[in-house]
């Protein structure tokens, strides 16, 4: 089975190991103070010193790479700690008093190829899964979301339970963008950089095509059908941008019927008032309609399409982080 390279850290570590270069995965397991990356952040390191991902935003990566290469020599996992004192924090680039613990696991020696392959299959099938490692006896396994750790999956929260460190791998956040307009071009790029899978929906092929949206999945189905196939879940955002009720409203209606965490609609306050009236006429309650963010985006005085896209993405991130 071929895997999607967008799952960069896990994919890269597995490929480097299979190629005989050797690799390890480093995972942030604890932070205190001003540590710059959250628990669960990961870095893949090759035996040649290459890296994908981040455990500190550049502060301690150099030191972690050296330790990872050592782990490939002895085949043993290890936990590293940096920045306990202000002096040590400064020496590895952490802010004063910042501290970080990092688990390093050599691939092939300790973390089996078959475990990473199964993890990638779960991720690509949008199945939530946890990787669990016991830091006392170094046993490891994968656990499905419906078996254990419900609160951790709900909160997207990796961390220790006793001697076990649990890395949560929830399905990627997704966004369905309705309308291949200028704002959508910027929004698709920003969303991808932010870690979202992107689907652009527009039945008008002159607006939605690979020239205007390279490397973006595009659907030319009518929005209600496209959204139905997309199956929005609690990790999905929907944004309508066309100003055309014939295109926007079917997507909004499907969104309101789904558990998606965010619905945002472009347009002025007057436009939104008319939208609300149409939805009320379609028998949606005020509570249901209140899920819609309209006019869409945070109020940052955005003017250009790119600025508006930034305001939309900021509101989406704000919404999802409040929920988890």
Describe this structure in words.
By secondary structure, this protein is an alpha/beta fold. 36% of the residues lie in helices and 23% in strands. The chain has 2 domains: 8-128, no CATH class; 174-319, Rossmann fold. The chain has 11 helices and 15 strands.
Question: Which short descriptors sum up this protein?
Answer:
324 residues, alpha/beta, six-stranded parallel sheet, 23% strand, 2 domains, five-stranded antiparallel sheet, 15 strands, Rossmann fold
Rg value: 22 Å
Give the uncertain stretches in residue-range form: 1-6
Structural class of the helices, strands and pairings? alpha/beta
Number of helices: 11
In short:
With 324 residues, the chain is α/β, with parallel strands linked by helices.
Strand and helix layout:
Elements: H1 8-18, E1 23-32, E2 42-46, E3 51-53, H2 61-74, E4 78-82, H3 86-91, E5 99-106, H4 113-124, E6 129-134, E7 140-144, H5 150-155, E8 159-161, E9 164-169, E10 174-178, H6 182-193, E11 197-201, E12 217-219, H7 223-230, E13 236-240, H8 245-256, E14 262-265, H9 269-281, H10 286-289, E15 292-293, H11 305-323
Helix pairs in contact: 1-4, 6-11, 7-8
């Amino acid at each position: 089975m071929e895997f999607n390279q967008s799952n960069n850290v896990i994919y890269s570590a597995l490929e480097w190991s299979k190629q005989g270069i050797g690799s390890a995965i480093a995972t942030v397991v604890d932070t205190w103070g001003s540590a710059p990356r959250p628990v669960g952040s990961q870095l893949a390191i090759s035996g040649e010193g290459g890296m994908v991902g981040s455990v500190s935003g550049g502060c301690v990566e150099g030191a972690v790479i050296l330790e990872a290469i050592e782990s490939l020599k002895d085949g043993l996992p290890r936990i590293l700690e940096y920045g306990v004192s202000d002096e040590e924090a400064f020496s590895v680039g952490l802010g004063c008093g910042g501290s970080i613990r990092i688990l390093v696991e050599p691939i092939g020696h300790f973390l089996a190829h078959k475990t990473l392959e199964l993890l990638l299959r779960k991720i690509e099938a949008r199945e939530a899964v946890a990787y669990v490692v016991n830091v006392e006896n170094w046993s490891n396994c994968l656990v499905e979301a419906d078996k254990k750790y419900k609160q951790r999956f709900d909160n997207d929260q990796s961390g220790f339970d006793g001697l076990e460190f649990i890395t949560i791998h929830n399905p990627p956040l997704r966004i369905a963008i309705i309308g291949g307009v200028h704002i959508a071009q910027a929004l698709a790029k920003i969303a991808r950089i932010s870690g979202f899978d992107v689907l652009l929906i527009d039945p008008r092929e002159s607006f939605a095509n690979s020239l205007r949206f390279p490397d973006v999945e595009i659907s030319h189905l009518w929005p209600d059908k496209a959204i139905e196939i997309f199956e929005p879940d609690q990790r999905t955002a929907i944004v309508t941008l066309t100003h055309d009720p014939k295109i926007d409203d079917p997507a909004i209606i499907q969104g309101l019927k789904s558990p998606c965490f965010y619905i945002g609609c472009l347009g002025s306050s007057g436009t939104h008032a008319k939208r609300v009236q149409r939805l009320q006429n379609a028998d949606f309650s005020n509570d249901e309609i209140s899920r819609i963010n309209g006019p869409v985006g945070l109020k940052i005085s955005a003017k250009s399409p790119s600025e508006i896209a930034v305001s939309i993405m900021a509101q989406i991130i704000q919404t999802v982080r409040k929920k988890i």
